[in-house]
Specification:
The protein is of the alpha+beta class. The chain contains eight helices and 13 strands. The protein folds into two domains: about 140 residues, Beta-Lactamase, CATH 3.30.450.20; about 100 residues, Beta-Lactamase. Strands 10-9-13-12-11 form a five-stranded antiparallel sheet. Strands 1-6-5-2 form a four-stranded antiparallel sheet.
Length: about 300
């Protein structure tokens, strides 16, 4: 009996050891698969940001190319309309003291210049009530967002290009300056999204999203809020803000985006002086990958 009892205990111990080992292997294997799925997805998001960056800055290059092709005597109103610009001016040297744009000031030094810039309320109002109306956005703090006491955003981020015109002696006689207001520029973020992610949804949520931020505020986005409206005026997460705006670094990690977790990539948008003035973001919904993990684990 004792021999039988001993054999039974040994057998039981062996079975328990095998069971524990099997569970450990299963958990370890699941963890490896999970990490591999997420790592591959996050790497792809990094590549997606590269494409988004190229498209975004390609907008400035497109203005430059168009300026070099347009005859100097052309009708500016028609040029502005044909190029889809929000503003287009010719600035003379005698007006330089009233110039607020650092892009124009650089062009007066003889350098064709394209860059991002912030346009403040006073300048927007000078451009026209329609321009200011486009730029003005109600600010809506969201869960996990960076603290922001603003109720209304009354400035704009713009991409612009300034081209100097020279006389026979090489002196700048005027500067042609034009650009686009990025506040509510849904065409640009949708263009990037459709190129990178296509217009796909997962369980009612956009699979891939693109956003342009002015500082910490979404000014153009296809991220949706709880009402299925574009989440303009919402604020970036505090962790992302500190990393991207305050430190001027790239963020490549999961982040909470308005209503859901996304695998994300954020990069700083800088002005002509190298100061961070905003953020370019791309992200892919995390939930499809989590659901895939569950299917693999459950077999």
């Amino acid at each position: 009996m004792r021999t039988q009892s001993l054999k039974t205990r040994i057998l039981s111990s062996s079975l328990i050891s095998i069971l524990i080992f099997s569970v450990a292997v299963l958990i370890l294997g699941s963890r490896i698969i999970k990490d591999d799925i997420i790592a591959r997805a996050q790497k792809q998001v990094r590549n997606d940001l590269f494409i988004a960056h190229s498209v975004y800055y390609g907008e400035i290059e497109a203005i430059r190319t168009a300026f070099n092709l347009v005859p100097l005597a052309a009708d500016l109103a028609k040029v502005k309309q044909n190029l889809g610009l929000d503003y287009l001016y010719v600035v003379k040297p005698e007006d330089i003291k009233r110039v607020r744009s650092e892009i124009v000031l650089a062009a007066f030094k003889g350098r064709p210049t394209g860059a991002n810039r912030i346009i403040r309320k006073e300048e927007l109002l000078e451009m026209g009530a329609d321009i200011y109306s486009k730029a003005e956005i109600e600010v809506r703090p969201t869960p996990k967002s960076h603290p922001n006491s603003q109720t209304v955003l009354d400035k704009a981020m713009a991409i612009g290009y300034a081209m100097p015109v020279f006389d026979g002696q090489g002196k700048v006689t005027e500067v042609i300056y034009g650009g686009k207001i990025l506040n509510r520029d849904f065409a640009l973020v949708d263009k990037i999204r459709n190129l990178v992610f296509e217009d796909k949804f997962y369980k009612g949520k956009p699979l891939g999203t693109v956003t342009i931020f002015l500082d910490d505020i979404r000014i153009a986005t296809n991220v949706l809020n709880n009402d299925n409206q574009r989440a303009i005026g919402t604020v970036v997460s505090d962790k992302v803000y500190k990393k991207v705006v305050e430190e001027g670094s790239l963020w490549l990690d999961r982040a909470f985006v308005v209503t859901d977790w996304y695998l994300t990539a954020y990069e700083p948008i800088k002005n002509i002086k190298g100061t961070v003035i905003g953020i370019l973001y791309v992200g892919v919904l995390e939930k499809p990958f989590k659901d895939l993990e569950k299917k693999i684990f459950l077999g």
